[in-house]
Amino acid sequence: MASPSAPARLVVLVSGSGTNLQALLDACEDPSYGARVVAVGADRPDIEGLARAEGHGVPTFVKQLSHFESRAEWDRAVTAAVAGFEPDLVVLAGFMKLLSEEFLAAFPDRVVNTHPALSPAFPGVRGPADALAYGVKVTGCTLFVVDGGVDTGPIISQSAVPVADDDDVASLHERIKVAERAMLVDAVGRIAREGLQVEGRSVRFGGPAT
Ligand code: GRF
């Protein structure tokens, strides 16, 4: 995906604090990482994630659903904005909106998302809270290729995180996010340098067999 002269182009979409984005921005400072963040998009203005991008001199764009007549128009605008930056990989890093089949079709097998639970357990926006409420002793994070479902796509990487007896949702989510950032940086770097093969639910790093 990347070559020495042309690192893989990442477009990262965020909705919040952007610590996962920050981890990628920091990793991309090293030329041997093989990728660079060429744009950061958000579904809302005035968030820390956008400020982090601006601090690194990375172009940003905001597409707020409420500014569009329909979800379909919003989706088309997001698709066009992302496509304009010609990404090799689109990384959803705490992006809190579902994207349409049309968006995914524009970037086949090239949209990845990080989720703060060990899939297939606890999909959706309450991953850490649902894991805590269920009483699991181990949870974690999952990086997957986005498909049409909610956190259902083929799994690229996972990392396990213990649940402490005195955890609340915030403390558990913070511990997960430490593992999540490391997982994301490792896997995105491997995708950039080695490529990614997706066949059904089977995902492997590396290029096509020759
Ligand atoms: C991450 O745990 C992500 O998986 C979840 O929201 C969190 C975003 O964190 N959807 P940040 O904005 O990267 O700090």
Structural overview:
The longest helix has 26 residues. The chain has one domain: Rossmann fold (3-Layer(aba) Sandwich). Helices cover 34% and strands 24% of the residues. Helix 1 runs parallel beside helix 6. By secondary structure, the chain is of the alpha/beta class. The chain contains six helices and nine strands, in the order E-H-E-H-E-H-E-H-E-H-E-E-H-E-E. Strand 4, helix 4 and strand 5 form a beta-alpha-beta unit. The two termini are 15 Å apart. A seven-stranded mixed sheet has the order 3-2-1-4-5-6-7, with helices on both faces. A two-stranded antiparallel ribbon has the order 8-9. The chain binds 5-O-phosphono-beta-D-ribofuranosylamine.
CATH superfamily: Formyl transferase, N-terminal domain
The number of domains is 1
Overall outline: globular
Q: Determine the CATH topology.
A: Rossmann fold
Order of helices and strands: EHEHEHEHEHEEHEE
Q: Pick out the low-confidence regions.
A: none
Which range best describes the helical content: under 10%, 10-25%, 25-40%, 40-55%, 55-70% or over 70%?
Answer: 25-40%
The CATH class assignment is: Alpha Beta
What would you say the CATH architecture is?
3-Layer(aba) Sandwich
Per DSSP, the total helix count is: 6
Structural class: alpha/beta
The average pLDDT is: 96
Widest β-sheet, arrangement of strands = 3-2-1-4-5-6-7
In this entry the ligands are: 5-O-phosphono-beta-D-ribofuranosylamine
Could you give a short account of the major beta sheet?
A: 7 strands, mixed
Strand content: 15-25%
Cα distance spanning the termini:
15 Å
Q: What is the C-alpha radius of gyration, as a whole number of Å? A: 17 Å
Q: Please provide the count of β strands.
A: 9
